[in-house]
Amino acid sequence: MKPVSDNASIFSAASIPALLFTAGVLLFPGQLSLADQSAEENLAPISKLCLAGEDCVGAKVNEAAAPVAAAPAPAAAPEPVAEPVQIAQADDGFDLQATYQMFCFACHSTGLSGAPLPGDVEAWAPRMEKGREEIIEIMNRGLNAMPPKGLCMTCTDDQLWELSQYMVTLEQ
Fold this sequence. Notes:
With 172 residues, the protein is mainly α. The chain has helices at residues 16-27, 39-43, 96-108, 121-128, 132-141, 157-169. It is built from six helices and no strands. The longest helix has 13 residues, at 96-108.
């Protein structure tokens, strides 16, 4: 057995809260009810919203309260629209410069891991010769240290193409 020096302590400062908690459980076992509850009970909402007319389990009903008037009958359902509805494009509001700054700038502005610098026509030329479809495919799957889509997971193929064109023409 090792001798304990005068400066050494049996307990570290980090163990004191654990000791206090353990002492509290042993001395006051009924006071720490969270330990006795299941995970579901600990995560359950504090209360439930009961709407008028709903049967809510465990809800206290005020018997003296005036009864709730019945809701009016719903109007007839509207006729289905014969023409398809135009849904807004997902790329509305695409900010090319902000997207470049957020996802491309860190590597392409420094040339990290061989990333071509913006505006470096010689570095971009062999890449752009592959054509739009192959460039988009490469950007989608990633290349060398570049992760898929350059981590812009919300970017569409058209947006990825716009980003590539932006980097080719961007002046530093």
